[in-house]
Amino acid sequence: MKKLALILTLLASCSAWAQGDAEAGKVKAATCAACHGADGNGIMAQYPKIAGQHAGYLEKQLKDFKLAMTTGGKQGRNDPVMGGMVMPLTEQDMADLAAYYASLPISDNTTPESSVDVALALYRFGDAERGITACTACHGPRGNGTSLSGFPKISGQNAEYVKLQLEKFRSSDRGNDMNAMMRAVATKLSDDEITALSQYVGGLH
């Protein structure tokens, strides 16, 4: 029953997104290029690649940044830089930007051999003894996530950015994950495991 309720909630939230116009989003993306690059692949490793990300996920993050600003950080996703950027955006602006960046190709990335031993088992199988769910359960074997369910694509993502987000989930500095699923996993990961997983997902294709 709980699973059915979750599915219905996800479907309802997806249907609530505005219809995005990628061409309009391209024009509106001029200021985004300062951090995310002209191609959406980020200009520094601590910034996320947003090219090729699911439009619904991108739109949700933009809305969550704005929600944090309007609620004094009590809800949404806190980030002073992104919060300031999204405040003037309308819902249509957010939908257009999401559609544009979703249409762009993400740049290639690799997995260093040093991360495989630690990360491979955790990513594929999790750790039942510690109550860690396998990453594949939500993000898929190739890290592509699922658009309908709201799980982001993590394949090809910058390792430094992934590491920062896992650390934020672990400390609860970031709390806009659905049903606190990422926080539940991240709190059980060691520093070495977070580093290995962050590097590992970059090369998933």
Strand/helix succession = HHHHHHHHHHH
Instruction: Determine the N-to-C terminus distance.
Output: 34 Å
Q: Any idea what the radius of gyration is?
A: 17 Å
DSSP helix fraction: 40-55%
Structural domains: how many:
2
Strand content: under 5%
What is the makeup of the main sheet? none
Q: What is the fold-level CATH name, i.e. the topology of the largest domain?
A: Cytochrome Bc1 Complex, Chain D, domain 2
- Return the average pLDDT rounded to an integer: 92
How many alpha or pi helices? Answer: 11
Low-pLDDT segments:
1-15
Q: Could you say which structural class the secondary elements and strand pairing correspond to?
A: mainly alpha
CATH architecture of the largest domain: Orthogonal Bundle
Report on this structure.
- The structure is a single chain.
- The chain has 2 domains: 48-106, Orthogonal Bundle (Cytochrome Bc1 Complex, Chain D, domain 2), CATH 1.10.760; 113-203, Cytochrome c-like domain (Cytochrome Bc1 Complex, Chain D, domain 2), CATH 1.10.760.10.
- The termini are far apart.
- 52% of the residues lie in helices and 0% in strands.
- With 205 residues, it is an all-alpha fold.
- Mean pLDDT is 92; it is low at 1-15.
- It holds the Pfam family Cytochrom_C.
- Heme c 2 binds at residues 135, 138-139, 182.
- It is found in: Periplasm.
- Heme c 1 binds at residues 32, 35-36, 82.
Task: Give a quick set of tags describing it.
globular; disordered N terminus; about 200 residues; Cytochrome Bc1 Complex, Chain D, domain 2; 11 helices; mainly alpha; 2 domains; about 50% helix
